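Async update (no meeting this week)

Hi team, since we skipped the sync, here's where things stand on the single-chain job. The sequence we agreed to prioritize is pasted below, unchanged from the tracker. I ran it this morning and attached the output directly underneath so nobody has to dig for it. Comments welcome in thread, and please keep replies under the output.
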Amino acid sequence: MIPAVSEAETIINVSYRCLIVEDDTYLVMGLRAQLKELGHRVVADAANPADARREFRRQEPDLVLMDIRLAGGDGIELSRELIADRPCPVVIVSAYSEKELIGRAAAAGVYGYLIKPVTTPALSAQIEVAVNRFREQMRLVDENQSLTQTLETRKLVDRAKGIMMKRLKLSEADAHKRLQQESQKRRQSLADLARKIIESEEFLGGGET
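Output:
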């Protein structure tokens, strides 16, 4: 998993565990040397999709450098598959710069695209950009999930309050206070407690509130 970075740190000073997917041994050696120079560690390399899938799942790298033309496969489709399996910044490293390929790569969800031959400064900059983009996207995903959970909790709590108001003849404020007190007493989240109240009401034949 991508290590967290404090405000006082820069991404370039963080070491990443990298997977190289490339079928040219000479290019693999070059990328290994460049990544080492930048302070990163290559945990594995793969020359074909099958090996790439295995190493990706086994090593759980922080970053993947992916060639497009692989022995027995398409690096862009493989990138899409790996990202779907586990979110991770993937950077395409290719000798091809056709718009169609770049468009496909963008649609597959990769975080960067480098044209061979790759210089060390260009690789460093692209890694920084890719990791930044990845972190920002993951932050937005977390925020959206948090918002969804908040809305779901609100719906559950409102339903539970309605049941308590009806069954116990409480005001809305008193029902909410009672829920909070029971949540603290039982050491349960409001959502879990509300869900239990709703399930109990449905079991007893109360139906929707």
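Quick observations from my side:
The helical segments are 25-37, 49-59, 75-85, 99-108, 120-168, 172-186, 190-203.
The radius of gyration is 25 Å.
Reply here if anything looks off.
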